[in-house]
Every structure is written in structure tokens, then in C-alpha cells.
């Protein structure tokens, strides 16, 4: 299996982990902050970090789209397909990953349980939106890719 196929499949781990974290923050927002809440935050962050490693390997060498874009960056910026892979997908996902890290720190430092749930909801909620926005969903014109590699 190629790195691109693993990165493509692993997106589902990232999406499910983020949905679980955000869903739990919503559901438990008036209750106690338990070890499950902490664990879900860690799982979402680790899933995103692993996806980042695969993304970096693609971005700095393995990706045909990024390599093609780097041949002529000026021209790539005028091409919606190459521009997406050069400056939209990776950087937006990176911001989402940073938000997950900051979110876990804010959760840890929050004064009480309600504040912890709120911080988790805000930071992981925004991270989830960014991931969904920067995803090459099959219905997206020009940049769309299959939901599973090879399909
Ligand atoms: C939460 C994080 C991320 C998710 C969910 C995600 C998801 C995806 C998906 C679904 C694809 C398409 C795979 C296919 O062709 O089937 C893809 C491709 C790619 N991703 Fe990501 N990604 C993430 C983070 C990143 C980051 C941080 C980078 C760069 C540092 C990156 C760089 C790339 C590159 C270069 C490609 C391949 C372009 C090509 O086909 O040549 N990704 N990603």
C-alpha cells in the first residue's frame, strides 16, 4: 500500500476521532470532566499527528501533485488543482492540527469542568470544520478524490 493510500484511509480515523471528541464535549458539557474526556482528546490529537507525518512525507517528496506544482509555482497558483495541493490542503490541515494541540492544553488549564468541556468544544469543533473543509471530497469539482483509495 502506498503512503498516499494510507493517508487517504487514515482520514477516517481522524474524522471519527474528531467527531467523537466534539460529540462527547457537547453531550457531557454540564457534567463532570472524566478520564474518558481526556482520552478522547489525546486520541484525536495523536490521530492527527500521525496523519501530519504521512502528509509531510507526501508534501516533501512523494506527492505527484505537489511535485508538479513546484515546477512552476506561479503557474500552479493559477491552476485550481495544483494550488489546492500546494497551498490549501496541507496548510489548512496543519492549522487544524495546531488547534487540537492548543485545545488539549486549554482543556488541561481550564479552571473547572464546564470550562474544560467548553474549550474542548471550541478548539476541536473548529479543527473538525477545517478538516472537513480542506478534504478532497469526491463531490468537489477539480480536486475531488474517492472516499476510499482505489475506488
Ligand atoms: C487531518 C489531516 C489530514 C487529512 C484528513 C488529510 C486527508 C487527505 C486525503 C483524503 C487525501 C487524498 C488521498 C487520495 O488521493 O485518495 C490527501 C492527500 C494529500 N495530503 Fe492530506 N490530509 C491531512 C493532512 C495533511 C497535511 C498536514 C499535509 C501536508 C503537510 C497533507 C498533504 C497531502 C498531500 C501532499 C496529498 C497528496 C496529493 C497528491 O495526490 O499528490 N495532508 N490528504
Please tell me about this protein's structure:
The protein is mostly helical. It has one domain (3-134). It has helices spanning 3-27, 35-62, 64-71, 73-77, 80-109, 113-134. Helix 1 (3-27) packs antiparallel against helix 6. The longest helix is centred in the middle third of the chain and has 30 residues, at 80-109. 31% of the residues are buried. The model has no long low-confidence stretch (mean pLDDT 97). The chain binds protoporphyrin IX containing FE. Protoporphyrin IX containing FE (HEM) binds at residues 4, 7-8, 11, 14, 48, 51-52, 55-56, 58-59, 63-66, 85, 89-90, 93-94, 96, 131, 135-136, 145-146, 149.
Indicate the topology.
Elements (H helix, E strand, L loop, with lengths): L2 H25 L7 H28 L1 H8 L1 H5 L2 H30 L3 H22 L17
Helix pairs in contact: 1-2, 1-6, 2-5, 3-5, 5-6
The structure holds protoporphyrin IX containing FE.
The site of protoporphyrin IX containing FE has 28 residues, from α1, α2, α3 and α5.
Amino acid at each position: 500500500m502506498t503512503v498516499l493510500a494510507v493517508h487517504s484511509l487514515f482520514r477516517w480515523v481522524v474524522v471519527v476521532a474528531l467527531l467523537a471528541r466534539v460529540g462527547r464535549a457537547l453531550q457531557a458539557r454540564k457534567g463532570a470532566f472524566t478520564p474518558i474526556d481526556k482520552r478522547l482528546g489525546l486520541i484525536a490529537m495523536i490521530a492527527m499527528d500521525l496523519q501530519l507525518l504521512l502528509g509531510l512525507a507526501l508534501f516533501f517528496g512523494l506527492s505527484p501533485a505537489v511535485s508538479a506544482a513546484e515546477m512552476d509555482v506561479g503557474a500552479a497558483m493559477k491552476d485550481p488543482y495544483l494550488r489546492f495541493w500546494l497551498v490549501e490542503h496541507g496548510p489548512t490541515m496543519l492549522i487544524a492540527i495546531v488547534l487540537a494541540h492548543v485545545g488539549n492544553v486549554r482543556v488541561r488549564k481550564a479552571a473547572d469542568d464546564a470550562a474544560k468541556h467548553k474549550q474542548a468544544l471550541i478548539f476541536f469543533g473548529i479543527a473538525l470544520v477545517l478538516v472537513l473543509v480542506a478534504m478532497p471530497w469526491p463531490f468537489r469539482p477539480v480536486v475531488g478524490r474517492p472516499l476510499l483509495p482505489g475506488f
